[in-house]
Design goal:
The chain is mostly helical. The chain contains eleven helices and no strands.
Length: 209
């Protein structure tokens, strides 16, 4: 967490270096407690988020209220850690002061809780990516196993078809023959066959005698 907090402060300081030459140059180029206080009020007048309102309350110990500007002006000393932080004179440890500094320069993600969560997510993605690159065989083996299993299933499906090809042909032929020949014709053919066999037997008996 300490390392992440340091990264958070460094990122805010970098954002400050950019912002001090921009829209709020008059407040940030040579920051003072009074200038930072006035800029803070200006920022909070423009629909602050709930997170920013919480930061305001945590550091200044009062809720932001448009009707209490005079009371807010009394909080000038609360901006001293932010002033010295921007000037590079101190390294603040007060997380509420650091979060308000992030609000003043519009650094995202803020507050520190969100920054920390994002860092953890990025770290998890990097670790996952490294693991995938370090173990390509695991993924390849998984693909090969799936291919082998699929091939085995296909072969099992084909085997009974090949084994029963003769029987299937006989069944198909029988069904087609039965469908094409009417019952009466079948009976006629059967009687004719019996008669033919009987005549043949009688012929051979007579010839033998």
């Amino acid at each position: 967490m300490n390392n992440t907090l340091e990264e958070y402060k460094k990122a805010i300081k970098i954002k400050y270096e950019l912002e001090k030459e921009g829209e709020h140059f008059d407040y940030l180029h040579s920051p003072s407690r009074g200038k930072l206080r006035d800029l803070c009020w200006l920022i909070y007048e423009n629909n602050p988020s709930q997170d920013d309102l919480n930061v305001f309350k945590n550091l200044l110990c009062l809720d932001f209220d448009h009707t209490k500007k005079n009371k807010f002006k009394e909080q000038k000393d609360k901006f001293r850690p932010i002033e010295t932080f921007f000037k590079g004179e101190t390294d603040p440890s007060n997380i509420d002061a650091i979060n308000l500094a992030a609000v003043i320069v519009d650094f995202q993600p803020r507050p520190f809780k969100k920054f920390n969560e994002k860092c953890r997510m990025e770290l998890a993605k990097q670790i996952e990516s490294v693991n995938e690159k370090a173990n390509p065989e695991i993924e390849n083996n998984g693909i090969e196993k799936r291919v082998l299993v699929n091939n085995e299933h296909e072969e099992l499906k084909e085997l009974p078809q090949k084994g029963n090809l003769l029987f299937n042909f006989k069944d198909l032929f029988s069904k087609k023959v039965v469908q094409k020949i009417y019952p009466r014709k079948i009976i006629t053919i059967a009687i004719g066959a019996v008669a033919l066999v009987s005549s043949a037997c009688l012929y051979f008996v007579q010839k033998k005698d």
